[in-house]
Amino acid sequence: MSVPIERDAIQGDIEPPSSEDLEAITAVAHDYVEGWFDGDEARMLRCLHPELVKRTIYLDPATGDRRLGRPADAEMMVAWTRAGEGRTAVAEERAFEIVIDRVFRHVASVSVLSSPYMDLLHIAKIGDRWLIVNVLWEVREGESEP
Prior knowledge:
The protein is an alpha+beta fold. It has one domain: Roll (Nuclear Transport Factor 2, Chain: A). It has four helices and six strands.
């Protein structure tokens, strides 16, 4: 149960993100989605933290229940990108939207909506770089197993 609190009371003296941080966060999201669609290994490698965890939720056809897919890591994502797994007919549409949902100091939540997927990214500033540390995604149309 949530307790209604006036927004100003909980935000207090939180500094808004700098324009440089917003640009860097947006660039990371672009590297992620465009790197996947283009099969650009360097861009994917550049945007992912080495300890990335990426999971999907999918419909299990045997039970009809939603399930959490097995986690993928940065190494797997880079290998799939190198192999061109993201270069599909749907990816050629290239339509996507990046929305920075929230930034607090060194953490950000970003939504990436593309024709085939909805990706929810958790991005962290490690040292002087913003990197994707977690992704939860789902196929937008139809169902597929992970």
